[in-house]
Automatic annotation (TrEMBL):
This is Zinc finger ZPR1-type domain-containing protein. It comes from the Eukaryota. Keywords: Metal-binding, Zinc, Zinc-finger. Residues 31-189, 254-401 form the Zinc finger ZPR1-type domain. InterPro entries: Znf_ZPR1, ZPR1, ZPR1_A/B_dom, ZPR1_jr_dom, ZPR1_Znf1/2. Belongs to the ZPR1 family. Pfam families: jr-ZPR1, Zn_ribbon_ZPR1. Residues 1-23 are annotated as: Disordered.
């Protein structure tokens, strides 16, 4: 095993892959060629995919017979939930979407009733067209032998191959469903950072069999009693009151998300927004690489309905409204055709202006995926969008350069936005409660649970929990 480049101890294990690093750190391993039996070379690269996660890229090449192969493996932890991505292919551009699929991804093309089972293919980085081409190649591989041994089956497969090849001409729209129980699959959004109208993403809770397939077992299933250490030790009644918890800063060790070194995470329970909202503030500081991050976790029960709050930004004061954003809250700015989905920015307690700054910073910091792209149209669109986002600021005058509206949508109803006229209705806000969809309840694990509603006090058109 040989590293092609020396590595400083402070460098992260998984580095961003950008055009500024033309010689990324790779590891070369001598490997057996499954095609000819000679030894070939496998190159391994640990990197990050922007807007996705850490991955391990592996490329094999045999200099004796010319055989080549490449695959991708997730480098981070298995997600808490699986993911189901439904793509409607309507244009040729949709066939060129990049796709990251793990070993546990099943692919289904609804219109032709075709499915590639999970674990039948290795993980790979490809395109939608590449998925179809690989399926065609696999079906054509043994056709000469089938025509001799079973001509009827070979004829049926020939007819099905014609249907698959016809899909690439897009004579009519068709639907591709990627379902991955590990949650490690991804489909490119060519309109990023704007919303993708042809993709629907659902995160679902795995069942016990699916957990076992991923090698996840509970302590009871493997016959090991959980250790009562750290935060998991048993607390007797009266030993630790709620008042004590509010005044205590808890600390525990976690791997640094940037370099992987063990670092300290501080956690504290506190109340915000008129001393009602209880939240957990978490802050991580890595002394090895200097990485810092903080997040706000909403606490409390899940409300019976979702909430959608829209605010019109017409003055400098509107930029200073406090915002509590939970992990399941999505954001939208209609004037920019911008939608930021759930889990994108994490949980935050900030202001309206702070949300704009966070969106801009994330887009710029992760924008190498678009700026380094050879697609001139995509690069132009992203640069124009970031320029428009920068124009929404309050630094030069008391009145914003552009008037706009923004809305937060939280199907858990654990997000809130500050009212300036409380307890009277705020004319600058529009608050709507709505019934959650079945998919929302499935993501929250509520479909199989018995729910108990909470009491609510309605003041005018505003709804406040008490």
């Amino acid at each position: 095993m040989e590293n092609t480049k020396s590595k400083a101890s402070t460098d992260p294990i998984f580095r961003n892959l950008t055009a500024d690093d033309p010689d990324p750190e790779t590891t070369e391993i001598e490997s057996l060629c499954v095609n000819c039996g000679e030894n070939g070379t496998t190159r391994v690269l640990l990197t990050k995919i922007p807007f996705y996660k850490e991955v391990v890229l592996m490329s094999f090449e045999c200099e004796h017979c010319g055989f080549k192969n490449n695959e991708i493996q997730p480098g981070g932890k298995v997600d808490e939930k699986g993911i189901r991505i439904t793509l409607t292919v309507e244009k040729e551009q949709d066939l060129n979407r990049q796709v990251v699929k793990s070993d546990y991804t099943s692919v289904r093309i609804v219109e032709v009733d075709f499915e590639i089972p999970a674990q039948s293919q290795r993980g790979e980085v490809t395109t939608v067209e590449g998925v179809i081409d690989r399926a065609i190649t696999g079906l054509e591989q043994d056709q000469p032998l089938r025509r001799i041994q079973d001509s009827a089956t070979a004829e049926q497969i020939d007819g099905f191959l014609t249907k698959l090849k016809r899909l690439k001409s897009i004579e009519s729209p068709f639907t591709v469903v990627f379902e991955d129980i590990s949650g490690n699959s991804f489909v490119e959004n060519p309109r990023a950072p704007q919303n993708d109208p042809r993709v629907d993403i659902v995160r679902f809770t795995r069942n016990k069999d699916q957990d076992h397939l991923l090698g996840i077992y509970s302590s009871n299933e493997i016959g090991v009693e959980p250790k009562e250490t750290g935060l998991l030790k048993k607390i007797e009644e009266g030993d630790f009151t709620l008042e004590d918890l509010h005044g205590e800063v808890l600390q525990f060790q976690t791997p640094c998300p940037n370099c992987g070194t063990e670092c300290s995470t501080n956690m504290k329970l506190t109340s915000i927004l008129c001393d009602f909202w209880e939240v957990v503030i978490m802050a991580t500081n890595c002394e090895e690489c200097g990485h810092r991050s903080n997040e706000v976790k909403s606490s409390g029960c899940i409300e019976p309905k979702g909430i959608r709050i829209a605010v019109k930004v017409t003055s400098r004061d509107d930029f200073t409204r406090d915002v509590l954003k939970s992990e399941t809250c999505s954001l939208e700015i209609p004037e920019l055709d911008l939608t930021v989905g759930p889990f994108a920015l994490g949980g935050r307690f900030t202001t309206v202006e702070g949300l704009l700054v966070a969106m801009k910073d994330q887009l710029i910091s992760q924008g190498a995926m678009f700026v380094d792209s050879a697609d001139a149209e995509t690069k132009k669109r992203v640069l124009k969008f970031t320029a428009e986002l920068r124009s929404y600021n309050t630094s030069k005058s008391d009145v914003p350069d552009l008037l706009f509206s923004t809305s937060i949508d939280d199907f858990r109803d654990l997000s809130d936005l500050q009212l300036f006229t409380e307890p009277e209705p705020d004319p600058g806000l529009s608050i709507v409660k709505y019934e959650r969809t079945h998919a929302h309840n499935e993501e929250l694990g509520l479909n199989d649970m018995k729910l108990r509603t909470t009491k609510q006090t309605i003041i005018g058109s505003q709804v406040h929990r008490k």
